[in-house]
Amino acid sequence: MRERAPFTDHWVRRLDDASGVEGDWYPREQALGGFAEALLRIAGELYLPFLAANADAFAKGLERVEINVWGLPYALAPFKYQVKCLQQLREKFAALDAGERAALKPVLERTGCWAILVGG
Question: Could you tell me the pTM of the whole model?
Answer without folding.
Answer: 0.76
